[in-house]
User: Fold this.
Amino acid sequence: MIKGLKPSDDPASGSPTPEVSAAKPAVRLTKRAPVPPPDPKAPREKICAECGLHFKVETGQKFYLCPDCYRRSFTYKRKGGKDAARVLTHITCAACGAQEYLPFIPEDPAKALCRACFAKERPEPRPAPRHSRS
Assistant:
């Protein structure tokens, strides 16, 4: 049976006639409050496509991998023209405890420093000696 239709009591017609229903109250539609657009200068949070970790992306950057997965997947060209994968070593900094990847194998991984600690302990370069024109 079709909704809104009721069979007729008239045997001569043989087909049901539509019943007129009482008028329903009108439905009132309301718009949602507008959502403010996100700040274009604020960093966005993304999920790494490879490992699933959350990481932040600055404006203008379009990464789908977190920095660690991106570094691991990158292939570097070495001098000499041969394509070879670059060796990345995962270390824990002996000074601050931060975990980082280094592009080489350190002599003693237990004493390896992250880039920031290495830069702090690195001696200042001496200026080149000036020669007088005599």
DSSP finds two helices and eight strands in the chain.
